[in-house]
User: Fold [histone H3]-lysine(4) N-trimethyltransferase from Salarias fasciatus.
Amino acid sequence: MNNRSITRQNEGIDGTERFLSPGKGRGLRAVRHFAVGELVFACPAYSYVLTVNERGAHCEHCFTRREDLFKCGKCKQAYYCNVDCQRGDWPMHKLECVAMCAYGENWCPSETVRLVARIIMKQKVTTERTSSERLLLLKEFESHLDKMDSEKDEMVQADIAALHHFYSRHISDLPDEQTLIELFAQVNCNGFTIEDEELSHLGSAAFPDVALMNHSCSPNVIVTYKGTVAEVRAVKEINPGDEIFNSYIDLLYPTEDRRERLLDSYFFTCQCTECTSKSKDKAKMEIRKLSSPPEPEEIRSMVHYAKNVIEEFRRAKHYKNILLLKTEDLIQLISLSQEKMGAIFADTNVYMLHMMYQAMGVCLYMQDWDGAMNYGEKIIQPYSVHYPAYSLNVASMYLKLGRLYLGLEKKSQGVRALKKALAIMEVAHGKDHHYVAEVKREIEEQK
Assistant:
């Protein structure tokens, strides 16, 4: 490592420092006070890729959402704001441009494979520490290879095969097998999904400095995105010496579920204050008030059923993938699950809320605006109780509801919901974010 790299590592990120967190390994802590809503730090993506489903709606290079994008003249699949964005993206897009032309409809590497290909290219041309690695180098990412089961091994092998198939002609000297196994494992454990204000999936990225933060189910910061830059803001008061905690997972679910998900995806058992106190579990697991209460075994059996249903949806990952199934089949699955769970679980139970959220997504896809609104109205209040303050999940639900109300000419309800979304977004995204400006404009237009 050269002297310049050493200096930059010591400089770190203003107001924070890398340290050894007891029982957690390396982590990030504050060296000064941060107020709620204050930007702790921003991190440009080391490497990133726009999801295929958003092509034509977002610029491939800067992720700007606009209608007047122009497409790459060669592949006719990548879209850009202007010539500057196209030139800026060319070092990465050229990897795919020729391949997409050659393979046509058969060009179908996964998003993870696309991201890893870009990381490999970046590593070939980058010798110094980047502005994304002020505290943590990408090559320092944990891979947890020793903890991977056979299913994860098979997934990595399939990704490596796809990388060779789609990219070997276009990347000279691909790394050896062991290096690729480690890189895919590192990306799987440390990669981020970039989302918009309604939590729709926009793409995948590597943000090394953001990955340095450890997890808590009661986090004191939140990560949002401004284009391809991750912004980390305080959602609680942070004092000098406090460790800075992000959340790696959806915090809706009870302790047992969260711990299972963290162990499966990130290979640790969470011991945060929320997991040890289990303070929200009773409300999250509310049972329907019946004349004859269900037996503990019945409840356990229903929880097992609910987890299996949720896992089916989780594997599909995003609505746009789920909806490749026949819509009627999906509606039937959701309806049957709601009916079965509803015999024991109250409507505020997180498993019921999960199914309502899926149903709302189907209604939005089918443009059943009244149906979507009805589900949203049932979801929003329990969400506000179950999630932490300044939750993006709560903000996005208020935002969806507000926009639905306005579309259905329910003006006062729409403005009220948008204002509630805005109150959260001004803390989570920052008052100068373009998403915040958009919501303010929507509210202004109703006056």
Observations:
- The longest helix spans residues 83-103.
- The chain is about 50% helix and 10% strand.
- The first strand starts at residue 16 and ends at 21.
- Residues 1-11, 317-324 have pLDDT under 50 and may be disordered.
